[in-house]
Amino acid sequence: MPGARTDPYRLGLAIEGGGSRGTYSSGMAVELERRGLTGVFDDVYGSSMGAITAAWLLSGKAEHGASFWWHPDVLPNVIRPRALLRRKPVVDLEFLMDQVYQQWAGLDFASVLESPVRLHPIGTDADTGQAVDLAPHLNSGDELKLALRGSAGLPLLAGPLVRLAGHRLLDGGLTEAIPFRTALRDGCTHVLVLRTRRADERATPPPRVENLAVTAFLRRTAPAALPAWRGRPERRRADDEQLAAAGPLTQVLVPPGAPDVSRLAVDPALLRRSFDLGAAAMATALEAGA
């Protein structure tokens, strides 16, 4: 039983973020739920959209939550590129949490915190530029909602920074996009890592216009986070190398030939296909290890 093991192991699940690319890891998580495997883990770690997938998994309704990825009234109202021209959030996480997940989907945030498996949303502290595990600050459903918004708070695109327990929060993907390092520091002896990229997708710097815009935003709002923004490709390469070396880490990758999914993708057919491919990748991995 999670948190009360009689063996010497501590099992962690780490879920990569990536905006709409999270449909891949969402499919993987749903396959775990379908097979009744959520309870084998002691702790679940998630960055950005990975943290939201983790919350749905611990609610026991991951498959129901995932169906809102391709609901026609959801992502077109959450991801609105033209909103930037009106100085509104391009990614409306408040609408996603309050309207979509709480009102439409019926996610009981408080019940997630009652799960015997502990949830660890990873954010970036805007004032230190370091990754922060928000698990110690989750004492209510409202705090969990803030933590999930903060963990997914893309610089510039998600609007004003969320504040929680003295932290001003930016997207966890800035500092720990694949949150296995926090799991290992916490004492997890084995970590299953759900990825949102193919093995052949190389780490590259952001487009020049995006880099200039985000750099200007961080200089004004969170200068301590600038090194984290600039160092993302190098950290990604280091993560890929450590994950490929295995050891206590096992990763489930997006299969070769799977389509590219941008972090702001809204095409329902593409999102459903990537979800199905993620679920199939997890099924293959489980059957290979059986």
TrEMBL record:
Motif (GXGXXG): 17-22
Organism: Amycolatopsis bartoniae
Motif (DGA/G): 171-173
PROSITE patterns in alphabetical order: PNPLA
UniProt GO BP: lipid catabolic process
Annotated protein name in UniProt: Patatin family protein
Active-site positions on this chain: S48, D171
UniProt-recorded Gene Ontology molecular function terms: hydrolase activity
Keywords assigned by UniProt, alphabetized: Hydrolase, Lipid degradation, Lipid metabolism
Record-annotated PNPLA domain positions: 13-184
Gene3D superfamilies, per the entry: Cytosolic phospholipase A2 catalytic domain
Motif GXSXG in this chain: 46-50
Key word NAD present: no
